Request: fold
Amino acid sequence: MNHTPYPRRPVRSFVTRAGRMGPGQQRALQDLGPRFVLPFQTTPLDLAATFGDYAGTPVASAAHSRSLRPLIEGQPGAARDHALNEWRLGESRCGVALDLRTVRTRDAKLTLELGSGAGELYDLANDPFECENRFDDPACRGLRQELTDRLMARPPDIRTAPDKPVGPA
Reply:
């Protein structure tokens, strides 16, 4: 006999439809968000420095990584004000080469395509589902400049050309 300590229920999706959540999803986010939504910004790059920090060994390849240990252990003053992301795609991946840079704060997100200058800017406080691109909105010029400055403050050690793709991707 297979005994489970809870009644089985069908799994329900947390996928939003047209940028909206259903009433149950809204209640779940409202009730559980304070317990499970992280109040700070991180990036996958931070994992290398974190592993090295816990192992007591610096990781040479983690030049742009900051340990998450202070955040995990709840040390005062450990919060971050933004996280960066970089994504370079060769032409074979999607038909056009892309050189994307993103910066995200608690209340805003900016993505720039460095080759074309195109971008997306979202006011996450008022548009958490990123439905309204404010990149060309004159009212957001100051925010756009502030986030662009954060992106461009990255150390200038990025390679000039991505590696040759292997296979179709």
In short: The radius of gyration is 20 Å.
